[in-house]
Amino acid sequence: MLSKQLIMSGQSKSNEDLKLRSNSAEFLHSFKNAFIAQTNISDYLAHVIKIKRLAKMPLQFLAKRRKIRRIAMDVESSDESYADEDAKSEAASQISDIENEAKTFEEYTQQLENALNILSTMKREEYESRTALKQLKFLENLIHQPKEWISGAKLKLAEKKFPELAMTLMGIYKEKGLMVRRIVFVHSILLYNCVANFTDGEFDKEGLIRKQAADVGFIEFAVEILNNPSYSESLKKSYVIENPAKVIGSDDFKNYQKILWIVDSSLTILYNMANIPELKIHFRECNAVTTIAEYTKLKSETVCTQFEETPETKEYMLRLNELQDIINAIRVTSCLVLPLIMNEDEDNLLAQANEVLPLLIGLIHMYKKADQRFYGFSFVELVEGLSKIMVKGRMHTCIDKSLVNLLLDIMNTNDDVKLLECVSSAILNASFDEKALHYNVWMDIDNINGGVLESMAAAKQVFTVTSLSYQNHVDFATIPFEEAFAVLIREIETLRHDLTPGTGPNVLDYDHAKVFKNAYVASLQTTNTRVAETENAVLKWDGTAVRQWMIQTGLRNTERALAGVNGRLLWRLFQMKCSAPESYYRIVDKYFDRVWFTQMNDILKFDDALEQLFR
Q1: What is the spatial distance between Cα 382 and Cα 378, in angstroms, rounded to a whole number?
Q2: Where are the beta strands (DSSP E) in 188-337?
Q3: Domain boundaries, the chain
Q4: Which end of the chain is less congested by CB atoms within 10 angstroms, N or C?
Q5: Which residues, by range, are in coiled-coil regions (predicted)?
Q6: Nearest-angstrom CA–CA distance, 328 and 457
Q7: Could you tell me the pTM of the whole model?
């Protein structure tokens, strides 16, 4: 983890300074001692904070994390009452099977299935019991099992519909009040950790868990959490701490800590799910963009310490630095989520990213190994996030030469294809500000779906660069991108077909192929002649004539959808139908539905009438 002084100043630090904070055995040893000391306090909130801190550390510490974490597995608060006293006495008298670490994958799978079954069959009043807590601890530790176990465990989670179970638990914990009772918060934050872990791109590479989570309403639920006005107001506070024992022990500051963890976990879940393009519609429907944008505006220094660090105050300083790191994590995560879900015309929402970029760049500068994670993000995620902010946020002035040199050095010394792709893309996007140079460079590769575009995007990134004069030309200004792209593909395929000689036993003789081609061209000429005759008449139609045609077609209720459309624009719509049917049907459905509760027969009736008009 980065220290507050390293991240927030935005100043460069030497590699030696960074190494002392991120990759030092001495740092890990002191951290372990602090962890053990804290768990002896029997403070559940502190326990969760320590677990979260370890979760944010580079992956090279994961093996050690498992050993440290077991020290506190049985540490439970003595001042909290549980819903079921039977479970309490049972937990004190015997050891659960879950606490016996599995030796084989079969044993672990059985333990996982048992944990999911226990949670799914619990009654409402048992959700804050010791039994529930043990199951959640077990699930939270899943991602630290051997890699060869994770794939099978992931399938078991999907089979048992873990997202649906988690959504039920989250809703109940929210009703009970996350801020009211500390034990409810502890259960909740462990559950949030589980969801964040299982929706991570490295864990859920196929997107199965994330799609299930979206179907049961995780995105809307997380946005609702972020929309809580009391949370946003609390995070706007600033604390100047002179007496750490007094401030940290206050109810107000404890609630502040809880809110930080809830918001951080919610944003992490949203970031994980935003990386699947087809889930973008969920973010748009619940107005997630404006909600998340508010969290980019958090102050950088909200917890200021004004006391000397002594052996007595060392633990307080450690916890306060941790809270400042969580604030930074919230700011970084919100800035990385926005480019994944925003539209081109919303780039003003990234205005606050200007203050967060030094923090993001500082994390990238700490890169040493491909498996490192900072604030829970992999190096690839950080660089890809920076690349997207460059495109959609126009923050090119924040890029310094040292960062470019670092990325270039990675390109020259690595063979990882995924790493090279993200680094080269970041260098390209940071090289020039296309909008300032009056170029329009916008092809949202992540959100392209369907047909030729999907195939092309899967093969490589395609940048369409057009000057403003070309873009504003009368023949091109009204042509949707998909249509222009479809025309280009057809021309390329035609040239390839004409220039490639036929070979093989199944290829027609050249003379026969020529006969078929001539017949095809003749049929096209006949069709074009018929269309041209109709076209000349329809092109002269004004708006009134178009409305009369709609009425004659039997579409009186939807005639307002073509308000302002004359014959020439109607002809253009027909051309779109022929060359880019996906765009055509999307537009028809969108604008017809605005003026009338459109049914399928309305769209089919209009489609047939348009076909008859120009055929």
Answers
A1: 6
A2: 239-241, 303-305
A3: 80-216, 217-341, 343-433, 525-614
A4: C
A5: 95-125
A6: 34
A7: 0.58
